[in-house]
Amino acid sequence: MGLFDFLFGNRKPTNVQVLLDQIWMTTDAKFTGLIKEAEERAKSESVAILLVAHFPDVLERLHLLANEWTSDVPLIAVLASNLNTDLAASLNVDETAVIDIIVGERHPLPSVDENLVTFANELPCRCRFSHHVSLEDPVINIFGGESIKNMLGSLGMSEHEAIESKMISRRIRMAQQKIEGKTSKRLDAETAAEWLEKNCPEL
């Protein structure tokens, strides 16, 4: 055992590259940016692209994007709850392949988002993993999304450009943790807003 392993443990290497959140001003801009990222990934080494939603309303938007897809690289829109290793096996990938996983929202619970990274790590290939979020998304909006939008607008940010901000990503994470602390049940819902109403009505 080497000194590094002795000090820090024998850590399993990860095959997942987690990118910074792409943060958009509006929902429409988010989906436009999301499909542009997919188009860029299709021109690189990606052998398949998964567009992932936590809720059916976002999945519907992703299906619309997938239906207009023209690249030869497979593009699959799927609910996070339906992700499984059989899906990856159907793509016939090996450890040298790259799959891009692009998620169209943050779940109110951080543990559910973390399950996606766990899924990606279990795949037999390399993965690039990214989230696209909007300041209009319910999880963000209830914890100051409008004020952040106004601040960014005053700084000259356009609706049609995304930012990568560790500060805003931390605020999103803090909002999720606050929600998780107030959640005693996990009832299914069609949208993130409905999920919050059912499971965290006091917010």
C-alpha end-to-end distance: 50 Å
Low-confidence stretches: 1-12
CATH architecture: 3-Layer(aba) Sandwich
Question: How much of the sequence is in beta strands?
Answer: 15-25%
| Sheet/helix structural class | alpha/beta
List how many beta strands DSSP finds: 6
**Overall geometric form:** globular
- Under CATH, the topology is which? Rossmann fold
Number of domains: 1
User: By CATH's scheme, which homologous superfamily applies?
Assistant: P-loop containing nucleotide triphosphate hydrolases
Count of helical stretches: 8
Care to describe what's here?
It is a single chain. It contains eight helices and six strands, in the order αββαβαβαβαβααα. Strands 1, 2, 3, 4, 5 and 6 form a six-stranded parallel sheet that branches. It has 203 residues and is an alpha/beta fold. The termini are far apart. It has helices spanning 3-8, 27-42, 56-67, 85-90, 110-121, 138-154, 166-182, 192-199; strands spanning 16-18, 22-24, 46-53, 75-79, 98-103, 126-134. Helix 6 (138-154) runs antiparallel to helix 7 (166-182). It has one domain: P-loop containing nucleotide triphosphate hydrolases (Rossmann fold, 3-Layer(aba) Sandwich), CATH 3.40.50.300.
Question: How is the secondary structure organized here?
Answer:
Elements: H1 3-8, E1 16-18, E2 22-24, H2 27-42, E3 46-53, H3 56-67, E4 75-79, H4 85-90, E5 98-103, H5 110-121, E6 126-134, H6 138-154, H7 166-182, H8 192-199
Parallel strand pairs: 1-6, 2-6, 3-4, 3-5, 5-6
Helix pairs in contact: 6-7
Protein name: Preprotein translocase subunit SecA
Organism: Novipirellula herctigrandis
